[in-house]
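Good morning C.,

I know you're traveling, so I'll keep this short. The sequence:
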Amino acid sequence: MKKIKQKNTYKKPGGTTNSADGNKRREKVWMKKLFSFKFFKMPLFTSMVSRYVILFFAVVVLFCVLLVNYSTRSIDNKNMTILVDIPTGSSFLKVTEILNQAGLVKYRVFFYSLAIKKNARRSIRAGEYEFNTSLTPSAMIDKLLRGEIKNYKVVIPEDLSLQEIAARLDEFRLIDKELFFELAGDEDFLESLNIKADSIEGYLFPETYFFDRSMSTRQIMKIMVSQFLKKVTPEMIKRAGELGFNTHQLVTFASIIGKESGDDAEKPMISAVFHNRLRKKMRLQSDPTAVYDLDNFDGKVLRSHLKRKSPYNTYVRKGLPPGPIANPGLTSLKAALYPAPVNYLYFVSKKDGSHFFSSSLDVHNQAAYRYRHINNESIQQFKESDLE
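The tokens, ready to paste straight into the viewer:
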């Protein structure tokens, strides 16, 4: 068997390279060329990327600095108060547009960025907002997020009538007056409030309220009635029953007391006068009842008013009128429940806010003449009808 000779791949001196060595050498050359390429040497490409990265971060840092500066500086230095009304269902874009039109957004890019940072794109409570331009944009957005809509402090004094309360609420543009009076006598609405009467008169409790314009007329009326229901306790209702009054009669009686005097200290004595007159089956003869249902009453009670055939006029009808003539507060209600232990039947104004009380008609007439509260014709009216 012949011996197979291996092929000698080594090159003789001055000859060609064998195949194994040649492959290694070519690989080294290829790697050398590859790593000599600019990408791996990172001269130009890496430099450009680095520049863009540095520029990007520089822009971000600059934007953040400007955003912080924008968010912490006042909107302007004019110190103006601006009212803005946000309609129900407004998106944040719509809110921004409203604020922009009001002159409260100077740079939308920063405002949007600040809003995103504060997660302010969620729904914002509708209503009327009051912004002072001394506020920072950050504080303005916080106010929107908290829903701090403008409240109106409305003081409803004791013993105002329905008409007077409507006028006061309308001053602040808080109600629709037409709807207010419509609801005041709406049977279903009154029933929903547990008012057993033909009118809401007497049940709008006098108080200091904080209303906002997002509230409806119906809501405002409900809030005022709810105060009445809180203040008039079961004990008071029980006491009224002991005196022979139901709740409606109690409110009616208290409303007359309140309209006759603004002096809380005198109300128990005025109450006593009316209790005593009812007990003796005398007419109450209260001036405010004679003019309650008059339109455009100018404040001066005339003899012709006292003769009016009105269901509220206690000069021509006995007992209590069919309903309250005002909305009494606690002082009038308590005075109605706890009259002073006196036997007075008459009182007349002394022109200084107080009254002169008496048990005799002759003494009363003398006092009336002395204080010039009523003229001789009115005195004669007492003589003719007081004890009928």
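Safe travels,
E.
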